[in-house]
Amino acid sequence: MAVNLATDIKPISYVKTNAADMMKYVTDKRNPIIITQNGEAKAVLVDIKTYQETRDEFALLHLIKIAEKDIQNGDFEPSDKVFSDLRKEILENAWKNKKVHCKC
C-alpha cells in the first residue's frame, strides 16, 4: 500500500469539504490519505478494515514480544511437556463428560 503523492496527501481544508469523497476513496482503494495542516503531515485517514487489521497485527506482535521476554527469562516449558499435559487434560475432561467409551 504505497502512498501516491499526487492523490494520497491532502490538506485538512480539502478533507473537510470533501469528507464523503475521502471516505469513499479510502474504502474503495484501501489506500490511506495523509492529512496535512499548515503543510505538515498531522493525521492519516484509513478504512475500518485496514485499521482493524493493523490493530490485530500489533496485538500479535505484542504477544510475540511478551513470549520473547518470557523465553529470555527462562519462563517456559519444553513443547513435548506442554503437549503431553494438554493430551492428559483433554482425556481427563473427556472421561468426566463421558465422551470416551471404553470397549473393554
Q: Per DSSP, what share of the residues sits in E-state strands of 2 or more residues?
A: 5-15%
Cα-atom radius of gyration: 25 Å
Structural class: alpha+beta
Low-confidence stretches: none
Biggest pleated-sheet summary: 3 strands, mixed
Give the end-to-end Cα distance, rounded to a whole number of Å. Answer: 61 Å
CATH architecture: 3-Layer(aba) Sandwich
Please, what is the CATH homologous superfamily?
Answer: YefM-like domain
- The helix content, as a percent range, equals 55-70%
Give the gist of this structure.
The chain is built from four helices and three strands.
Write the layout of secondary structure elements.
Elements: E1 9-11, H1 12-17, H2 19-29, E2 33-37, E3 40-45, H3 48-72, H4 79-96
Parallel strand pairs: 1-2
Antiparallel strand pairs: 2-3
How is this structure best described in words?
The chain has four helices and three strands, in the order βααββαα. The chain has a three-stranded mixed sheet. The model has no long low-confidence stretch (mean pLDDT 90). It has one domain (1-75): YefM-like domain (YefM-like fold). A hairpin with a 2-residue loop joins strand 2 (33-37) and strand 3 (40-45). With 104 residues, it is α+β, with helices and mostly antiparallel strands. The N and C termini lie far apart (61 Å).
